[in-house]
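Usage

Read records sequentially. Each one opens with the input sequence:
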Amino acid sequence: MDKQALVKEAIAAREKAYTPYSHFAVGAALLGADGSLWHGCNIENASYTPTNCAERTAFFKAVSEGCNTFSAIAIVGGAAGLPISDWCAPCGVCRQVMREFCDPETFEIVLACSESEIKTYLLKDLLPLGFGPQDLEVAAQKEANAQ
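and closes with the structure output:
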């Protein structure tokens, strides 16, 4: 799937956002390594902390259905009910979730402020020195060697 098509899917996902408090709607389209596509939107809650971002919604849907390898995600966002007009980058928590399932050297994060204005980043560029599963393996190995 090309980047522009992935962005169109993210724009469609944004339409389902539930944002009665911030009125900031975000949509995400997550591309599985096998070509599967997973949509996500942000879902707010009156007590705020249970709110879930669009990116995590897409990841959690995919993983809960058995898909856990990914190649790219497109993210769009902006004031609900208005056309997208600015860039919307993933928050730190979403970047960390991406790091759990994605290779930071190859996973692409596609941001768009319109269907034609697109920027692409690698996860490693948006989450330098991210903490991932390999870090726990290294710590366990060090502990085992110390014993």
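Summary fields computed downstream for this record:
- The CA atoms of residues 137 and 143 lie 10 Å apart.
- Residues 133-146 form the longest helix (14 residues).
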